[in-house]
Amino acid sequence: MRLTTLKENNVKATFFITAHYLNSATEEVEKMVNDGHIIGNHTVNHKSMPSINNETIEKEIMQLHQSMYEKFGYEMKYLRPPKGEFNERTLQKTSSLGYKTVMWSFAYCDWDEKKQPSQEEAIKIITKNFHSGEIMLLHSNSKTNSEVLDKIIKEAKNQGYEFKSLDELDAIGHRVVHGGEQFKDAVLITDEVIQEIKENAMLAPLHNPAAILGIEACQKVVPNKPMVAVFDTAFHQTMDKSAYIYPVPYEWYSEYGVRKYGFHGTSHKYINDKISEILNRKDLKVISCHLGNGGSITAIDSGRVVDTTMGFTPNAGLVMGTRSGDIDASFIPYVISKSKKSLDEVISDLNKKSGLLGISGVSSDSRDIEAGVNEGDVRCVLAEEIYENKIVSYIASYYCLLGGADVICFAGGVGENGITVRRNIINKLAPLGVKLDADANNVRGVVTKISSDESKVLCYLIPTDEELMIARDTYNLICGK
After folding, report:
1. Least confident of 164-173, 222-231, 249-258, 293-302
2. Known catalytic residues?
3. Which of 22, 33, 99, 329 is at a distance of 20 to 30 A from 314, taking alpha carbons?
4. Residues ≥6 apart with Cβ < 8 Å to 139
5. CA gap 80, 92 in Å, rounded
6. pTM here?
7. Do 118 and 64 contact (CB within 8 A), yes or no?
8. How confident is the model at residue 204 (pLDDT cuts 50, 70, 90)?
9. CA nearest 91: which of 145, 136, 47?
10. Burial of 158 (0-12, 13-18, 19+ CB in 10 A)
């Protein structure tokens, strides 16, 4: 890992695992953790595993590293998946922190089984997920940006896409997490737009700088192609001021920009557009539930956001995989006093060690929680109940805020695939006259009406498609539609 590349480009790694046989790297990593460039660092101590030859491990890891580098042109990082899993589910779990870009590559050695997965196996798994958006791009280690894009084109061809050269591009769409108050819709990227995205980096320090790198890379390689920025926060800019102002000193908003911004906006807009198309109405009152490892619910009236659960940051609202959601902020200094942790460490715990993971002590994955419930694990039972109750309370609140609802939509990894979670949520909404069609609910990932004919509110499973929204917004803006 070329640590200077991270530092020079202000790219932050979420996980970085070093080993004691890489002493110089360990020292540099520790420094970068303190500087905030690396989050969640973990050091593997090979001295505790005397039966394994360190030189062999290093050789095997570097062989895999080189193989993956040659295939995609990306630098590797190591990851030891939980429970020794090395499969698609591992990639889904470790990508569940909310990142969704091109690829996350890594080497892995199963210490317990004392065996290294073959290079072919690793490449097969990562290649399969290359276009799924489930793997996080750490940073490019290719000599030029052109080489990186060439790798993507070659892989696209391998996946069956007809794509001969960059000249075939008509436009490029970029997902940008935070648009602040400036951007209420997708915009054509200009120097002024880039500067404003940079100025919003304080609001999304892990995401906006990476978006800038992508934009600037494309400017160098295809300088004459129009580019569009699509913001996760834009859809929520339709909220009234009474919905986004916090009950804190008003100067915090006017001077520092402290307000509710909301996230998952691209997904919620897609869900609203899709259900409006299905029901052939533009005046729907929609409660959109994007439930994944990160989750949010948005109340929408005739295409305008009335309220949403995420706030100044994504760690607000619902209980999530590793995020706490709503809490009483006043216990933070109490925890700091008792635990002797720093403020940054406590905030990190609230984002990465809380939610389903924190309550259950088992996993951030709802499937693991459900398995624990079936096995009678009391903390998994507790985690599931808290998780579902929070969702129900927000749906009920938004039902009243909207003056009733026409439809409740479920999307995201859990919303689209969690048959049991959807059933439990809808059953708890019975006082609102919401009724489930159990047979129709026995489905995953397909547009389906899952409420019964007697239900006073329609319930739909709507698989989200944020990539399509980015492509659509880019097309419409470039073509003037």
Report:
1. 164-173
2. 232
3. 33
4. 5, 6, 9, 11, 74, 75, 213
5. 14
6. 0.70
7. no
8. confident
9. 136
10. exposed
